[in-house]
Amino acid sequence: MKKHAGAVSVVLIASLLLACSSVRRVVPLESGASAITVSLGGPVTEVGKKYLPLPLLSAGYNYGINGRLGIEAGLNLTGALFGLLHVDAGVNWYPLTVKGPIPGITVTPKLFFMTNFESGGNRLYPTITPTLYWKLGRHLVYTGIENWFEVHTRRSDGNEQPRHWLIAPYLGWGLSWKKWLFQLEGRGYTPNLANTGRATKNIGFGSHGVIGFFMGVSRTIGGAR
Amino acid sequence: MNRHGQRAVSTTTRALFPITLAVCGCMSLDPFLFKGEEVDAYLFDEYGGAMECADALDSLGPVDMSTVHELSIESGAERIAAVLVADRTSFDSTDTVILYIHGTGPHIDYYWPRTRLLASTGYPVLAIDFRGYGRSTGEPTEAGIYEDGFSALRFLRDECGDPRVVVYAFSLGSLVGCEIASGDESGRVISLILESPIGSVETLVQDAAYIDLPGSYVTTYQGKNVEKIKKVIVPLLWLHGTDDETLALETNGRPVYRNYRGGEGYYAIIDNAGHRTVPTAIGYDRYHACIQDFISGHAAQNPLLSTELE
Lengths: 225, 310
Hints:
By secondary structure, chain A is mainly β. Chain A has one domain: Outer membrane phospholipase (ompla), Chain C (Beta Barrel), CATH 2.40.230.
């Protein structure tokens, strides 16, 4: 902290991207059922001399259209504290449902939109996230890779945008109880990219990537699940 | 208070403070971009906390305190603290003084070895603390820290005999360095040295986030050195390490140097140097030579310095 007080700000700046996504509902909802999810967590970041998963808050909504399709939307509540509208919306496609040891598959293409209502302050990022999941009684285990796409070719100061595809593999565990689902998730942001040359100090995989941790709770409304 | 009589703030408190504010509805990160540490007194060689280039003090030996002058400079409604390291406090108009503008570290004591390194080149050095840093009053804002830089220039002109001024700015202090070098109307700024400079606050944000996020999402600071440098007409020296872990050379220093239009630019890209270790990685003797040659107009003869970017 003493060495670089300004880093605190950048820590939080970076988190606005890195914590865009929250824990996700990967299991199909019944037709007509909804679920509301609240997620807390973020990249493990140096704040002072301590490393903490940033307590970034988001809310999500899922709706089951039928057994094969659903929709989801989210709101980044931490971004809202900074006057930033940061929302996402997309589709859940369930091409394969879980059968014993054979995992279910969920594919979620989404659009993330951010704006601070100022000129030049709008951003849109497409993502697609395939997930495999297994159910063991009340337990849920899932893994997948979130894929972010940067469509801009230039950055500030005339610098080129060198990265157009950012990945974040993750591994999660869930426990269901009645209509509730509790989740813990670990995530590796951009494990293929060096994590140096940035004012943000995170814990990564050595010199690459950033590790993040999330927890979430969701409640199903309607339907039998 | 710590053992040196300075106010100590616990690490935990400093860690939790910004998060608490953010969670409680702070709408901007401005207060944290420049966040100084208040002290009751400067301790110089006796400072027991972390210092940049601290090993330089070993080679320099104890400072002659008769050459250390603590000053207070009026800057708008605030008073900023400054330290002049020189054998006198008044100069001729032909003398040259280095105005040292530090980074976002807490105060002058943290950068004291750097100040002494510069003073050991033989030039008087005036180091300032921004408002809200060290013994300076107020809270830092972008306009405020720029005012502090201009106030230091005015102080040298009005109170110190109007010497020629070399502006030496480090890290985020380069926001102030570029501002006053590009906006100086007195003509007394004769050159600008940027060590590990920032390109702009937006680049800081984008380097941290990997993608093209607007800086305005989280801060009102603009700090566009890449634009300000276009108005700098005095000679420029840019120093940057290849291993800068905070402000990457390619996205910060290089665009700044590329945009310089003054016609007399020199640079040194230092292998294996990090953000805070450029002088150490160069070696203090070569660092001295580099600064002296540049200020005295002999930069072209210094083997470390180049002019044309690859």
